[in-house]
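Hi D.,

Good news: the full-assembly prediction came through. Inputs first.
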Amino acid sequence: MLFLPSWPTDYLKRHDGGLKGPLVLYEAIKGGLRLAAVDAEASRRGLSVGQNLADARAMVPELTVREMDRPQLEAAFADFADWHSNASPLVAAMSDVSTFGDLVLDITGVAHLFGGERPMLRLLLTRLRDLGYTVAGAIAPTIGAAWGVSHFARSQVVEAADLETVLDALPVHALRLEPAQIAGLSQMGLTTIGQLRPRERKPLQTRFGISLLQRLDQAYGHIEERMVPRLPLAERYAERRFADPIGLMDDVLMTCHDLAIQLGIRLEAEGQGGQAFHLFLYRVDHKVMALSVNSARLTRDPEHITKLFSNRSERLEGEYDAGFGIDMIRLAVSSVSELDAVQLGAFSHRGVAEDLDQLNDRMSSRLGTMAVLRTQLVASHIPEQAARLVPALVASNEDRAGWPTPLRPLRLLPMPERVAINAEVPEGLPASMIWRRDSYKIEKASGPERLGAEWWRSGQRLQLVVPETPKKGEAPPYIPNLPQFDPEAGTRDYYVVEDESGRRFWIFRQGFYTAENPPPWYLHGFFP
Amino acid sequence: MPAPDQQQRLAALRETIADIERKPALAEARVLAEQQDGAFPVLAGGMLQEMFTDERRNGGALLGFALAQAKGLLTSQRPAVIYLQLADEAQKLGMPYGPGLLSFGFDPDALVLVRAANMGDLLWAAEEAIACRAVAAVVADLGSHSKLLDFTASRRLSLRSAATGGSIFLLRYGQGRAASAAHLRWRLSPAQSTRRRHDAKAPGPLRWRAELEKGALIKNAIKNQTEFLLGWTENGFATFTAQRRHADRRIGSATLPRAVPAQLADGLPQTA
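Then the structure:
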């Protein structure tokens, strides 16, 4: 657990070197301007969160004041939290007491990489203090205990054996309780956790609610508390740290290739392959850039993975910004499942489907997933609904035996275009057409092929929101008078027409001839 | 002014140089297919073919001609055809339509559609796709002209396709012809369909008029047929005897007359 009591002000000071002296951030709360964050110097001068801004200005005349920009700070804190995943993959920003300042790191099985728990804590704390952050930290067997110790005691490592003695000495505030609960406990004369623990639980529960006992049990490890890590957990990853930060994308890709080889060897030993690969670039200045690529089939081929990332990086262009340099790169794999080793024969062909899938991967990684598509046929008689374009990575072939194959154009316009049609008689074959300001004399035509609208939707009204049920004595809510779905107006008559030089078009008339206005005609497709 | 026999010798020498200058990839590709008398030949893979049509509204016929050739290249080892189009030209040209492919006789599962955002990406995808051994053909639908697709780019594509054995079809529109390294250049136009049985008013079986503007289908170009009137069935092309078009149709058009390779032996053998 890392506790940064004045993170917002420290962050702003670090970003803007010009901010001097006691700095406070204010926010409009309940109609008044109140302090939302104070830095170390300001709190030494007696200012605290929640104070009125005018009072604070009177107490400290040389106060620097800024308005708090919560969304920006939240995004920055999220980045800050992500950056800590270079110490441990499981990082969560804890926000149940305050929005900023509490970071939880699950360091189970990680500490030995830093030479033990004590050196790791020292490393994490000194590196933040060097950057100008006020920070306290604690390592403890439970999240609750670590929170309490980091907030109300000096930074230390609490062993499981000492947990009770350390916790007993802490004030009840260290249990993450609500203000009302703390007030009640101090009324009862219970100031430390040690005094609270031996009390009977039933009366405590009736007076303070179940949450008090829950916090108590969580701190002592009687019930488990879970954290929600910010980044998806990848069990398998390979990483490399650099003594000097690197910046060029080419270097990053070269490292990525090395890491892919490492990861590939490990996956091969386990008989596994992955479908999603993530490259995390940890910048020196607390930012993490993440690139992800997907593969259509399980793979552990380093060449293929590197190729996908290099294609993906070409799509980055301006987004890539190494800042002051990248000091750690991690390649993680997710969506892992079993992939058996395959014997490559000297005379056998490589899998054709595999080649094709790899091609689709490469093209989607550079052009985007929605740019590489396959047609999926749908059982619908409405032409534009009969074919759906799906990403080639996920497309699957299905059995279409027995489906009718009506005459359909080779090219279809995504949006039908209005045309002007002259027919000798209404309901007769079209005789001439004007499309895109060219006129066509229609020599041959066949039709109509009548495609009815979906009669089962007949009479329905298009509704975007469900109207609320009116309360008693209240007028029913306003329902816009949208036209009802009319299957007659949606019926289309399709014609295949050919002009004098042999171009063949697919046109349709929407609706029927009525007395008032002629129905509109559209051009929908081109025959070969 | 040199004497006539000198001119002849000069022409012969130029031809020799042209043959030397042709890279092996191109020379190999020139031995194309056996042609039965008058029928449309079965063209092998590994060629860059440009297919021109005069106007965008002929796009249906042009795509049909390319897919018809691509269908002949599909095998179990090369089961895919990649279709490339710029994303913002879909409304101009229309997109290949699954049920339409079925009724044309082309399996929609074999077609992968790539919608590139710009010409650079499209050419990258074409090169990437043709390098894959499972791709039978790449059909690039280029609704507009781009500076990026110059002679160098087409030379690159033609060498790639000759090396891997897949074909590239560049579908292009308009009457202008720029220099390119395509092995073959076609000019395609739709022709009036024939009579449908029992219904004289309805469009019948389709007809295309294909004209070879550049390249040779068989090695000795003397007997080479350059104009075809084609029909299409699910099993392949059907060739019909083409009536020669009227000479006056040529006058207004800006297209170059079909070039005989020997006349071009002046240092730029691939630009016709």
